[in-house]
């Protein structure tokens, strides 16, 4: 959708982000709404598919990619077969891909294997024509061969990778009395344009003495987000608990409030743990963004792995603290129990989209979220299927007023869907050809 041109009419004009409304002229009524997000003319839409390794849907057999135009992406008469016609991405298992804002570059850090932790870029030229960069950067000696990472929303300048070494049990001087469990954390910034490490910091991140004495600890970090001021990173956590009596991991435990780690940026120093009293799930997400700076300047963050209360959307204010007056339960909003947000994306003007499942089913669904009203509705117009699983889903594209998502059940054909952000109108786009055991994990 192209940016409309507006003029002030003497008869009166009401302009909102979502629509232009006036009754004075049929010409003005035909003008297009101001786009919610910037538009990239000629943007490529790259689809990614994950191959089965041993079990259907495990996605551990590698990743393939294929690019089409926006016009083809929204065309149901177009078919894409990434598994037969696409190009492989360097990764021993499922690649964790990011794309530039204009869709012309893909960023990748190899996940596991002999070259795990190697960062490279791919120039997108359409179809299976991807040109891998000659310059790479290997971060494995700092962040391991399986780093979690995302691109910051800073104009494609920076990526941040994070890692926690396997937490170890520490005892008191007597060698018997449990003290705490900790791993060593790494936060590393990458210059995406020059393909080099900008900076890194390594430190232990303690919880309170009372929390640690009970065995609570940070098991994983993921999904860093740069705040509006550009001076802090908010990093999601995945929490676990050690049994202080046995030293063994407790698979089930009473969860603490949701936690994030705040570090100074760009120095990456002074880690501080903040805690929500609203949510109790983890804030690390899984292979995708999990926090976003909204138009109001606050950060909104999803939670996972809280079987009792389901997923929440939490709010972190511009003082980099949780706003515990903001309560947005996906269970309550959708009228379900045990909701779980696999991945989500802020789309602009308080609207977001989330793929989720809930108690009693493994099938995935898509919901439209209104962060301001704290409401959610299941998106209709999608071909839902019992084998639809978004557990490894990674990539959405937001361009102008359009939100793109790939929807394929495991081992079955599916489609790209394009949703008009202001209205929620759903358009069924290009067909995605699948193969047994495989699934598509995103558009970029």
TrEMBL record:
It comes from the Bacteria. Residues 1-19 form the signal peptide. Keywords: Signal. PROSITE patterns: PROKAR_LIPOPROTEIN (PS51257). This is DUF4374 domain-containing protein. The lineage of its organism: Bacteria, Pseudomonadati, Bacteroidota, Flavobacteriia, Flavobacteriales.
